[in-house]
Amino acid sequence: MINKIYDKTKKNLKENMKKIIFYIIVLLILTYKLPFYINAPGGLINIDDKITLESKTKSKGTYNFAYVSEIRATIPTYIISLFNKDWDIERFENKTYNKETLEQLKYREKILLEESKNTATICAYNKANKEYDIVNNKLIVTYVLEDAETDLVQKDEIIRIDDVIIEKSTDVQQYINSLDKETKISIEVLNDGKNYERYAYIKSDNERNYIGILLTELMDITTNPKVDIKFSSSESGPSGGLMMSLAIYDYLIEDDLTDGLTIVGTGTIDENCNVGEIGGIEYKLKGAASKGVDLFLVPNGKNYNDAIKIAKDKKYNIKIVPVNNLDEAINYLKTNKR
Fold it and tell me: What's the CA angle centered on 325, arms 265 and 283, to 5 degrees?
């Protein structure tokens, strides 16, 4: 019985070998990943779906993130992008720092999202005069420059440098500025639950000393009322900082700043609540315009100038507002009611 099944299977494979090989080749052509990404217009993400806040006030309108659709290029999508004027091809190395792997890029972007959540929360609670407390502060290495003379690695949490306890990034800069160029420093770090002793040599660019690393500050924050911000595993980056902070602030106060509008925006936010520029403004604006939004908040400067030019060329019926900081965004919404 077994021999008959084996013989029949062998015969079928032999008779259909050309078809099997053809299907395998087609599958490889359709799924083989090229060293490119395709940037395309994205859409909107309703911030209300991301933020849970105790005693949250109601809004008639909505706050939304704008995003870029990022497609890993295969042979079919690469060919399509050559004929689709809204799809742009970008080489993988243009998205990363020098010699940074895809895995390292994803980690760095995730950490930047966490930092953005913290900063947005602090700015919103300060502006609304609500209580918050920073109960833990971590300083994480997110990238090591190629010319750095150090054995520090990504994900290292800086604990102390020599005998100096480090609590924030300014502590690092202040200490290394007090040392001479080429001084070797000892750095205690925590990585994956284990303590390590690292080293680094001080370098100088004639303006300041540095050790050739990028650091991101992460905080554990308790708030009153309690807020919880959750993102999916595919979401990352700091460009939602402005809109997170604006939405949280509106949820904390009695007034409804949305005035029934669909509001979308983009821009980073720093510890002083200043709004920073982002990449991919053209794709975010195109995606927002396709959804018929009322208002688009963008960082003042190049992002705003690019957005205005695109909107004029495409004849978008959308109000584009430049903002330099959180206060400007809030004041615009308060004073420009329909």
Answer: 25
Residues 88 and 33: beta-carbon distance below 8 Å: no
Closest CA to 247 of 232, 233, 231, 227: 227
Tracing tokens 């010319």 back to the chain, one arrives at: 147
One domain, residues 213 and 247: no
Question: Does one domain contain both 174 and 245?
Answer: no
Say yes or no: 323 and 260 in one domain: yes
Residue 54 CA: distances (Å) to CA of 51, 64, 254, 297: 10, 20, 14, 26
- Answer yes or no: is pLDDT of 224 > 80: yes
Residues 66 and 170 in one domain: no
Q: Distance between alpha carbon 269 and the CA centroid of its chain, in Å?
A: 12
Dihedral sign from CA coordinates of 29, 30, 36, 40:
positive
Mind listing the pLDDT tens digit for each residue in 254-292?
999 999 999 999 999 999 999 999 999 999 999 999 888
Same domain as 178, residue 46: no
Query: Looking at the 3D structure of the chain, how many domains does it have?
Result: 3
- Integer CA distances (angstroms), 171 to 174, 206, 215, 246, in order: 5, 20, 12, 30
Contact 159, 190 (CB under 8 A): yes
Q: Is the pLDDT of residue 1 over 60?
A: no
In a domain, 44, yes or no: yes
